Amino acid sequence: MHAFALFNLSEFLVPGAHILDVGSGSGYLTACLARFVKNKGDHPDTKIVGIEHQPNLVALSKENLNKDDESLLSSGHVVIVQGDGRKGYPELGPYDAIHVGAASPETPTALIEQLKKGGRLLVPVGPEGGTQYMEQFDKDDRGNVQRTRLMGVMYVPLTDLR
Questions:
Q1: Has residue 161 got a pLDDT over 70?
Q2: Cα–Cα distance measured from residue 47 to residue 28, given in angstroms and rounded to the nearest whole number
Q3: CATH H-level superfamily of 1-43+58-89+108-137+146-153
Q4: 3-class secondary structure per residue, 44-67
Q5: What is the pTM for the complete model shown?
Q6: Deepest in the core among 37, 70, 130, 135, taking most CB within 10 A?
């Protein structure tokens, strides 16, 4: 699924982009997103934000990123934060692309609101244990959103610490 996400979001992963990875877990996909952008060129405005609600995973993510390439975090191009991913992270938005690594029971409007015009959101949508679909939301230059159902999936639910 990580390869699918990288492929699906590849046109948005460009130098200077702001990317949000919701449910960033161990930091693996966040690192992949950062490297994908970095391989296309360096830009001072590039921001790859990983948001995770579990403190132990936030710490693990930072540890893993530093083991891989400490410049990812020290440069400020990659930021890992603890928080409720369902609310996104508006402080560093709006975002050119948003990836969600857990199923939202319904359309995640807070994330769509943080998407730049011309941006893309990739998110599994559906109830825990029920029918879920990977959905793509594209926001056009006027702010209109088009929803595309891509395929059936089964993800853990998007939650907070409760």
A1: no
A2: 16
A3: Vaccinia Virus protein VP39 (3.40.50.150)
A4: CCCEEEEEECCHHHHHHHHHHHHH
A5: 0.93
A6: 37
